Amino acid sequence: MNPARLALAALPSLLFVAGCAPSLVPPTSPAPPAARPARVVDNADFGLSGRIEQGGLVYGQVPPGTATLSLDGKPIAVAADGRFLIGFDRDAKADAALEAVLPNGTIWRRRLAVAPHGWQIESLPTLPKGTTPTPEFLARRKVELEQIASARAQTHDVGGWRQSFVWPVTGRISGLFGSQRIYAGEPGSFHSGVDVARPAGTPIVAPADGVVVLAAAAPFSLEGNLLMIDHGLGLNSAFLHLSRIDVAVGQAVRQGQTIGAIGMTGRATGPHLHWSLKWRDARVDPAPVAGPMP
After folding, report:
1. In angstroms, rounded to a whole number, what is the distance separating the alpha carbons of residues 122 and 237?
2. Phi then psi for 7, rounded to 5 degrees?
């Protein structure tokens, strides 16, 4: 055969091999359907009660089966019946976001306007803030603060947080929560609790049910004989300057039970009870929680 004709006869086969062979790349899988956006309910009703303000304590209720609850993105513990508790620090910012995720993925949101509070501020323009602490004091204080932090980190399945709190002792209120002194233009630490002046040895009682998480074996440098009680869901009480402590760490206490007595141990200028409340990292004003002094 003529070589030219032979080459033309082979051309279709060469074209098939060079340009028409099946692709070795697997077919592309179809894209999965786009996830449906979660349904969002704004201004949701959490049944809130209490004081949405600086230093305030607020109670609420989530829908049945709620998967998660958060405040400003931080998870919040919820009781088995859906009740929950949140607190606002003395210097809390003006707004907060409460969000719950329901079993079907629906998101409940509520923006909270945190009301400001007019704290008692005293200006002392001619007095210095204080002396520089010694290395010995700082070393001792570090150990004490670690004990306090460890106590506050404990959680117990107790329901004292649900109760209507009572005053640990009745008497003259000698120090207000949130009050602060300004020394020569420099702010001092604000008062983190409420003070009740009574003679040394006056018994104090548990303001609500709880579990003892700290009972100082020796006076702390500032707090003196310090007693702390966990009321559940992140809420705890601290009682400072006691002359004696009548309960032990791990002991369950009931509302109204005698737990110690007033003193002036630690940094105190006279006999009184300093009672402070804290929800997680937020300092809360005990006075509105306990109600008017009897």
Report:
1. 26
2. -65, -40
